[in-house]
Design brief:
This protein is of the alpha+beta class and about 350 residues long. The protein has 6 helices and 19 strands. The protein has helices at about 35-45, 95-100, 105-130, 145-155, 265-280, 320-325; strands spanning about 10-15, 15-20, 25-30, 50-55, 60-65, 70-75, 80, 85-90, 160-165, 175-180, 185-190, 190-195, 195-200, 210-215, 220-225, 230-235, 260, 285-290, 295-300. It has a 5-stranded antiparallel beta sheet.
Length: about 350
């Protein structure tokens, strides 16, 4: 048994998953300082039950790793060791140079950040080996990126035709309107990213990389928060398309931010559960479109998607479900170190 894992009762959950009931400890929350979803988690669990590591402030922390374990100290002097950790909740930390590409970081600073990024990632891996990583798979997008997601979705959902092109001008169709999307949402300029944008293909520069998807006429955006088998669907009327085809562009305007909880058709619920099972994901926020005819079209799943803005007061059940999974005093459902991935049923 891995050192540092304090076990209470052990129960077998099916043929592959083991549930550990822990006698206590704290939750290691790996995130960034400006993450509102993490703020909700800390509020609900209580700051005394969470050790929050904000990677964008990495220079404010101290870290030592030795054969016997590690010690992480925050700016207040609070210390985290392996034996203190009951669960690990990965809330998609991001490197400083990814967050602020406009900042001129020195080569030494970039090197130091990369070294710490590697070190903390492997601390998480060590805790993962001990069965302490829950709900959100670290770096899941490296395993199930958008192309894999759409391939797996093809026999469960309608998936719009798509292409990724670079240097193929003959494949850009004159007169065709498509939607350009960013695979990474990386910054292209200061405070600027590429959201989904409706374009005429002949206007695109073939020397640049483009991820293109056929435009779908839809009456509503749908997002479904999946929490280890529980589904929480929300819809947003698409009455903003004269401004943008991407709801995130207008999300700060109150008239365009009224996400409403609703019930999914039973066949769609079953398809989502089957899909997440094939990807071996315990958590994800799935994005779909609903046509005026009532049919649903799959777009993507974000394995680290934010959920806090959908249920900030805990009235719908999302907040409760997440807290139940990441709390240090509830039963733990550890993520498998090697996910049981399946492209097909």
């Amino acid at each position: 048994m891995a050192a540092g894992l304090r076990l209470g009762n052990i129960k077998r959950q099916g043929p592959e998953r083991i549930l550990f009931t822990l006698p206590g400890g704290i939750t290691f929350l790996y995130t960034n300082s400006f993450d509102g979803t993490s703020d909700l988690v800390v509020r609900e669990l209580g700051p005394e039950n969470v050790f929050r590591f904000n990677f964008d402030l990495w220079s404010d922390y101290e870290l030592s790793i030795e054969p016997g374990g590690f010690e992480l100290r925050d700016p207040s002097g609070r210390t985290l060791r392996p034996e203190d950790v009951a669960k690990v909740y990965w809330r998609k930390p991001i490197q400083v140079r990814e967050l602020f590409p406009e900042k001129a970081l020195s080569a030494d600073r970039i090197y130091a950040e990369e070294e710490l990024w590697y070190a903390v990632r492997d601390v998480v891996n060590l805790l993962w080996q001990e069965g302490k990583v829950v709900l959100v798979e670290p770096l899941a997008e490296n395993r199930v990126g958008k192309f894999v997601q759409m391939r797996v979705a093809e026999d469960l959902f309608e998936v719009p035709p798509w292409r990724f092109l670079r240097g193929s001008p003959q494949r850009l169709a004159a007169g065709k309107q498509s939607v350009v999307k960013s695979l990474t949402l990386g910054r292209v300029a200061e405070r600027s990213v590429i959201y989904a944008t409706k374009v005429r293909e002949e206007e695109l520069d073939p020397r640049e990389p483009w991820f293109l998807q056929d435009y779908v006429e839809a009456e509503a955006d749908v997002t479904v928060v999946f929490v280890r088998g529980q589904l929480f669907p929300f819809e947003l009327k698409r009455d903003f398309t004269d401004l943008s085809v991407d709801w995130r562009v207008v999300s700060l305007e109150p008239r365009f931010s009224n996400w409403v909880h609703f019930s999914l058709p039973a066949p769609l619920e079953a398809a989502i559960r089957a899909y997440m099972g094939r990807l071996s994901l315990d958590y994800g926020r799935l994005d779909l479109l609903r046509r005026p005819s009532g049919e649903y079209v799959f777009l993507e799943v974000n394995p680290h998607g934010e959920w806090g803005w959908l249920d900030p007061k805990g009235r719908i059940g999302v907040l409760k479900a997440i807290i139940e999974e990441v709390s240090p005093v509830t039963p733990i459902h550890p993520l498998p170190v090697t996910p049981a991935f399946s492209m097909r049923a």
